[in-house]
Design a protein that fits this description.
Length: 309
């Protein structure tokens, strides 16, 4: 079932969506068992910013029909805290994951970073470049630009300029995580490719709002948040299809995946890898189940390739 992705060999095509599976916390809860049954073929960190962030005021979650609105606000220790405290723990965990055949195979680490300017992003990438534990980088471009206030990833011209400006900061594979909150996601994907991205990933959460029952005012402390889960699956499918048809770099598809059939839909429209996000909150082993079922799915190209090998 192995898959080639930007020069990395992954055991199967299922990874996690950034910010939806805390591997360090999971290690504390599940202990060694997590290494024996690690669910993802590559592990994506939550978003890291240059300076530490406290995140948004509570409440931060709202359960919607068939989905979740979150306004977590990217709390994190900042670049230095991540490199000093989290990276060694992640590297130690991922180096010793069981490969399913009585051996150990390292799971590649993809570090997800966000900056409000090309300069901030370049600093993040340069610092990560020096760390061999990091296999690839993902740029979260759902961040307002410090100068324009517009989300960096929402405007193709701005996105291409930013990716081009930071590309030389790393030789590691560079994935651009597109925002779905834009008029033309395919144009943004093409811009990322022209700027030098090695891959794109999508979709991030869709901007959404919920009112506190009976209060007529926003429930979430930040006012609005991002919708994820089954409610966005068909939007994700449309956006992944539109992007995969227009770029020649690999695409990581995500949004509402709960089953192998959902994952296979994204692979069928052109994704190379599929990420599981919100479903991991319901079932931390969901990605492992999906990868196992994909291998058995007669529609699965990866299963077919595996059988032919
Ligand atoms: C609680 C939560 C936190 C998230 N944090 C991040 C994050 O730190 N960085 C990021 O790029 N995406 C983040 N995402 C977006 C997910 O990675 C994913 O793109 C999105 O949730 C769609 O997939 P899903 O429907 O399977 O959850 C977050 C999503 C959720 C639900």
């Amino acid at each position: 079932m192995s898959v080639e992705f930007c020069g990395l060999t992954l055991a199967h095509p299922v990874i996690n969506g950034s910010g939806t599976f805390d591997a360090i916390a999971a290690r504390e809860v599940f202990g060694e068992e997590l290494r024996e049954r690690f669910p993802f073929a590559a592990y994506v960190s939550k978003t890291i910013t240059l300076a530490p962030r406290a995140g948004n005021p509570p409440p931060r979650l709202w359960e919607a029909s068939a989905g979740l609105i979150n306004s977590i606000g990217l709390p994190n220790k900042g670049l230095d805290g991540y490199l000093r405290e989290d990276l060694p723990k992640l590297a130690e965990l991922l180096a010793g994951v069981a490969d399913g055949a009585h051996g150990r195979a390292p799971v590649p680490l993809i570090t997800n970073v966000m900056g409000a300017s090309a300069d901030e992003l370049a600093q993040l990438l340069q610092a990560c470049e020096e760390r061999p534990e990091i296999a690839a980088l993902e740029l979260n471009v759902s961040c307002p630009n410090v100068d324009t206030g517009l989300d960096i990833g929402a405007d193709p011209g701005q996105l291409e300029r930013v990716v081009r400006a930071v590309r030389a900061s790393t030789r590691k594979p560079l994935i651009v995580k597109l925002t779905p909150n834009t008029a033309d996601v395919a144009a943004c994907a093409i811009a990322a490719e022209h700027g030098g991205a090695d891959a794109v990933s999508l979709i991030n959460t869709l901007r959404a709002m919920a009112l506190a029952p009976g209060a007529g005012a926003a429930w979430l402390g930040a006012g609005t948040g991002g919708l994820s889960g089954p409610a966005i699956r068909t939007v994700a499918l449309a956006q992944v299809a539109a992007v995969a048809a227009r770029v020649s770099i690999p695409v990581i598809g995500m949004g509402g995946v709960r089953s192998a059939a959902d994952a296979q839909d994204l692979l069928d429209v052109g994704a190379t890898l599929v990420a599981v996000g919100t479903e991991s909150f319901r079932d931390p082993a969901a990605a492992a189940r999906i990868a196992r079922e994909l291998a058995r799915d007669p529609r699965s190209k990866t299963a077919a390739a595996g059988r032919a090998a």
